[in-house]
Amino acid sequence: MDYKEKADFWLSCNGLDKQFRAQIKNMDDNELREAFTEDLEFGTGGIRGIMGPGTARLNIYNIRKATLGFGRYLIKNVKKALKRGVAISYDNRHNSKEFANEAAHVLTSLGFNKVFVYNTLRPTPQLSWTVRYLECAGGIMITASHNPKEYNGFKAYNEDGCQLQPFEADEVIKEINAIDNVFTIKCNEGWKNVHYLYDELDGPYLDDISKIRLNKDVDKKFLITYTPLHGTGSVYIPRFLQDMGYNVRPVMEQMTPDPDFSFAESSNPENKDAFTRSIKYGTEIGARLLLASDPDADRLGCGVLHNGQYVLLTGNEMATILFNYICENKKKMDPKWPKNGYMVTTIVSSQMATKIAKKYNIDTVNVLTGFKFIAGVIKERQNKGEYVFGYEESYGCLIDTNIRDKDSAQACLLLCEAAAYYLQQGKDLVDVLEDLYKEYGYYRDTISNIYLEGLDGKEKINEIMEFFRNETKLKFGNFNIVSREDYKTHEGINFTTGKTYKLTLPTSNVLRYVFDNGSWFVLRPSGTEPKIKIYTEGISDSLENADKLCKDIQNAVLEVVNRQ
For the domain that residue 467 is a member of, what is the CATH number? Predict the structure, then answer.
């Protein structure tokens, strides 16, 4: 069916929401094309999109469809899935609670004996932990993470508490594609099998997190601000940190769950605007540390008071500091540590931590973008070595493996401890980072986002990627490229020798270029937003030179992109 036929089909169905029916009738041709040309795709992390009527929009019908496909997959592939059940949580966004309940009723209609649904919003990492703790067959998190307020999403988790691996997602997609009519999906049977979770699991979850502490008796008198940016972190993160002894002052106007993010200039802690109110409040009270988690509380942003000004750390910088802190202190506690230790990161994350790993004789495992791949390595290496740390550049890390997703509560706790530990030595976290630069070299990273909306934008993104993929003699200013890796074709090429080599990571539409001094950039279309991302890292002999190099590489790449 074309988009007009799809729209007419929706209008012909008695089960269509009255408000949606009115909206569809009032759509012009372009709006119909955008809403109905494509079906909302289920990727390796689930689905995410702008809310509204249509096959390409997120609504109760696409939630039902995704849940039915996921539920059928679990029944066929996970032992005793119906008996073990599924755990569900959700964030503060519009329709999140409704979507969670719709998913629960689809699953009970399928015959699941237990569907555990949090009565109020809870963070993504707690959902991951809950799947493992209750020994469920899988889990669902209703969230759009840090996306704008118009978005929502559906994340699917396997029995290990990890977002679906590609081979699992492929099977779910087959089940979803076999569903012909979303309006015939049963979702009102077996509702008595829905079990609501209140706060009974919060304590065990936080007890697990508290075990990551390395120096419990550090001086904790300094002031810290925290904001959940209207999201799920408000449930317990500030109280948890206070219980651990830290002097945390919440940014109160951002503590209320709010789907419109009314008092947050940005819902993404990667953006400086997300810290506008934290900086103002921190300045007023003299806070040394500013913490901000995203709406589903898996990512953490941080600001550090340094020489009278707040310096916002990148995800790579926070991870580097935390990884070094863990290594430094575990080595002090046990000179023989580590025993077959390993660290996991992604191909778009800074390589600085890799140098720290080498110093401590820790193996580095590089994976594709997405924390599911980090969690996958943890499962593969279970009982085959000591997991030390995992991180990705997008402000996410993991220390305690009872959770299998990035966790801002863990990051908050250990970052506060590291700040306290180094303050006793007369250093703030920016000073610590400078010490690491002096030892390992200066690394600066940045990301450019090129937004291309709608169907035309999606086509343009594909054209850009194919241009780079097919051109083997591209020039980026005066920079000397030594290699390119194409994770879609699984082929790498060394331009110095002309030799090609095979890549072993899963298939992904990603291109990675490396220059002769180790600096690099990556081109990758976003899986959750209409944009193409350019990741860049510059490596040099000073912070100023590394920063300039990073920007020069970025500008050279953008120049080529803009010519397309």
Answer: 3.30.310.50
CA angle 436, 442, 445 (to 5 degrees): 110
Closest CA to 313 of 445, 424, 401: 445
Are 417 and 512 contained in the same domain?
A: no
Report yes or no on 17 lying in a domain: no
Q: Domain for residue 18, yes or no? A: no
Q: Both tokens of residue 192? A: 């008595």
From 405, 440, 475, give the residue that closes a domain.
440
Domain that holds residue 151: 58-200
Burial of 252 (0-12, 13-18, 19+ CB in 10 A): exposed
Examine the domain organization and report whether 492 and 421 are in the same domain. no
Task: Answer yes or no: is 427 within a domain.
Answer: yes
Preceding peptide of 338 cis, ω within 30° = yes
Q: How many CA atoms lie within 13 A of 497 on its CB side?
A: 6
Looking at the structure, tell me whether residues 411 and 278 fall in a common domain: yes
Question: What pLDDT is attached to residue 93?
Answer: 97
Q: What is the dihedral of CA 160, 164, 165, 168, to 10 degrees?
A: 100
Q: Which two tokens stand for residue 533?
A: 């991302």
Helix or strand or coil: residue 513? strand
Question: Can you say whether the dihedral through the CA atoms of 522, 526, 529, 532 is positive or negative?
Answer: positive
**Phi, psi angle pair for 64, to nearest 5°:** -60, -45
3-state secondary structure of 79: coil
Q: How far is CA 337 from the centre of its chain?
A: 30
Beta-bridge partner residues of 531: 451
Distance CA 264, CA 341 (A): 40
pLDDT at 123: 98
CA end-to-end span of the chain: 32
Residue 96 among the catalytic residues: no
Nearest Cα neighbor of 80 from 114, 46, 108 is: 114
Pick the catalytic residue: 89, 96, 145, 394?
A: 145
H-run or E-run covering 239 = helix 237-243
| pTM, two decimal places | 0.94
536 in Cβ contact with 446 (< 8 Å)? yes
From the first residue on, what is the mean pLDDT of each consecutive set of 10 residues in the chain (564 residues)? Answer: 95 95 97 94 86 97 97 98 98 98 97 97 98 98 94 97 95 95 91 95 97 97 98 97 98 97 96 97 98 98 98 97 98 94 97 96 96 96 94 96 97 98 98 97 93 85 91 83 95 92 94 94 85 94 94 92 82
In this structure, the number of other CB atoms found within 10 A of the CB of residue 228 comes to 30
- Does some domain include residue 532? yes
pLDDT of 111 reads: 96
**Are 270 and 235 within one domain?**
yes
Final residue of a structural domain among 408, 440, 472: 440
Query: Please, are residues 142 and 128 in contact by the beta-carbon 8 Å criterion?
Result: no
Query: What whole-number distance in Å separates Cα of residue 109 and Cα of residue 77?
Result: 18
User: How many residues comprise the chain?
Assistant: 564
Q: Which residue type, as a one-letter code, is found at position 453?
A: E
